[in-house]
Amino acid sequence: MDESKRDPNWFWTFFVGLIGTVILVLIVVGLQTWFYAYEKDELQDKVYSQEYAELASLVKTQEENLKTYRWIDPASGIVSIPIDLAMERVVQESGSR
Predict the structure, then answer these.
(1) How far is Cα 72 from Cα 78, in angstroms, rounded to an integer?
(2) pTM above 0.70, yes or no
């Protein structure tokens, strides 16, 4: 029989196809893993590491409110005192009971 007209060996065709499929799957999984790692690093650099100005302003305002005297309701005479002084008074009051 003429060599050019022979049927291909099914075992080698299957084997080469299987190996090719495995290599393709490994390449796709590897690229996907690399992409997600790169995306995570980019999010960290561009989003999470940036200071949020509104949050910083809010924290500063809250800290000032905790450390200063201020009127809560002048009409009824309600005043806010610094947190350190308030804690000292609570300790004194609880110690006297």
Answers:
(1) 5
(2) no
